[in-house]
Write a structure and sequence with these properties.
This protein is mainly β. Helix content is 2%, strand content 39%. The two termini are 25 Å apart. The C terminus is likely disordered. Bound molecules: fe (ii) ion (FE2).
Length: 457
């Protein structure tokens, strides 16, 4: 792969792409990797192979690259591969960039760069502007998956899997037509619900909350109009935010409920649950996005009363945070703990999107917050929870993430004990070279890996 350099801030320093696809075994470890962790941590993120055209922005652009750390018996192995999309194959054949950034003129590519997760035995690289790409556990790209032709457009980059039923649920969106789609897939991978309906306006619905009865999502007043070119998304707070409630068994748009509330923006929902008539959702909450003097990014808890249509909004923490996660075995149920990346810069440090100076664990029962602050010059990505397989307690597990260190050509993969985040990493794997700032990922325990348990190879 031919390296190149760009002065675009979204392509420099911690965001600069890497150009090699590596396999490195028996990596040095500071501390001790928990022997109970056997499987693979995968994380996706933008990593353009060919120098992009003007207007490249983070996090909207760049073909996905998945970075993986395989853990077994206290040892670690690293591998990274581009998601070999059809568009990337075309560009490789041409030896140059063909596709334009998201807010540039057509054509645009399926970038497969936002998330990586597993459902019904398949691993997917996800991108909310196109269909998912199936990958195998060794990071080879199997190909695009339209769920036997049922997926006409894009799949959300944040479907959620109900740990109780094994169902995968998603709200998909199309900014051009202004339509939304509720999609449910059963535990065997068959689509069994697919309902299209109109959005109040063309907007991102990036993530959902999953409850025992409903999927909850938010149509925020970041309004998209591509006739405005790079200014396509505009913050129009006078519209307010609409709470979207879709019954999980929904078969028709008439069953869908909308509730108006005060304007806010959210990328993500850490978790949600239902208690009687009230749906509670915990999420990083923005007072706006895009144009305008937006200042507040906080962890909020929304209580949505289905019967009365009232929405109660509570600030859990006013320190800026993002990428909230919980123990995935508790998705859709009431969770006591939530983990997030914290904006926690030291004097002179400039916060970067998707890169956090600290991790926080919130006790949603007591309001207590415990924090691990990375050493100066280091930032980490999303905190992914890896459960201790010997325990069913919500809090028993580890927080996994990649760390980027300034002026260090090597990368790090850190493991923290979720029960004592403030104690710092129990293990730090030294990677052979840096891993750029990226987006979302998953811990895939080997007991449920693909046949042959290739995670061990
Ligand atoms: Fe996201």
């Amino acid at each position: 792969m031919q390296p190149w350099h760009s002065d675009n801030p979204a392509l420099t320093n911690a965001f600069a792409p890497v150009f090699d696809e590596r396999d490195d075994a028996d990596l040095p470890v500071d501390g001790t990797l928990p022997p109970c962790l056997s499987g693979v941590f995968m994380r996706n993120g933008p990593n353009p192979q060919f120098e992009p055209g003007p207007g490249y922005t983070y996090p909207y652009d760049g073909t996905g690259m998945v970075h993986a750390v395989y853990l077994d018996g206290g040892q670690a192995r690293y591998r990274n591969r581009w998601v070999l999309t059809q568009e990337l194959q075309e560009e490789r054949q041409a030896g140059r960039r063909i596709y334009n950034p998201t807010f540039g003129p057509p054509p645009q590519a399926n970038l497969a760069n936002t998330n990586v997760m597993r459902h019904a035995g398949k691993i997917y690289a996800l991108y909310e502007g196109g269909c998912p790409y199936e990958m195998d556990v060794s990071l080879s790209t199997v190909g695009p998956d339209t769920f036997r032709g049922k997926l006409a457009g894009a799949l959300s980059a944040h479907p959620k899997v109900d740990p109780a039923s094994g169902e995968m649920l998603a709200i998909n969106y199309d900014l051009m037509s202004g339509t939304l789609e509720y999609l449910r897939m059963d535990a065997s991978g068959q689509v069994d619900r697919q309902v299209q309906f109109a959005s109040p306006w063309p907007a991102l619905v990036h993530d959902i909350g999953l409850t025992a009865t409903h999927v909850v999502a938010f149509v925020c007043p970041l309004v998209f109009d591509f006739s405005r070119g790079p200014a396509a998304p505009a913050w129009e707070p006078q519209r307010g935010t609409r709470v979207l409630l879709v019954p999980r068994d929904c078969t028709a748009p008439s069953q869908i409920r909308w509730i108006e509330t005060d304007p806010f923006f959210n990328w993500h929902v850490a978790n949600a649950h239902v208690d009687g008539d009230v749906i509670e959702a915990v999420m990083p909450w923005h007072d706006g996005l895009g144009s305008g003097p937006h200042k507040r990014l906080e962890l909020h808890r929304l209580r949505i009363d289905i019967a009365s249509g009232r929405v109660q909004d509570e600030v859990v923490d006013d320190q800026p945070c993002e990428f909230g996660r919980v123990n995935d075995a508790w998705l859709g149920k009431r969770t006591r703990y939530c983990y997030a990346g914290l904006r926690d810069p030291r004097p002179g440090e400039t916060p970067q999107p998707g890169a956090f100076e600290s991790f926080a664990r919130y006790d949603l029962d007591t309001g207590a917050k415990s924090v691990y602050r990375l050493p100066a010059g280091q930032t980490a990505g999303e905190p992914v929870f890896a459960a201790d397989p010997a325990s069913t307690a919500e809090c028993d597990g580890y927080i996994l993430s990649f760390v980027h260190a300034e002026n260090d050509p090597g990368g790090r993969f850190i493991v923290l004990d979720a029960r004592d985040l403030a104690a710092g990493p129990v293990a730090q794997v030294r990677l052979p070279r840096r891993v750029p700032v990226g987006l979302h990922g998953s811990w895939l325990p080997s007991s449920r890996s693909a046949p042959g348990n290739q995670a061990r190879r």
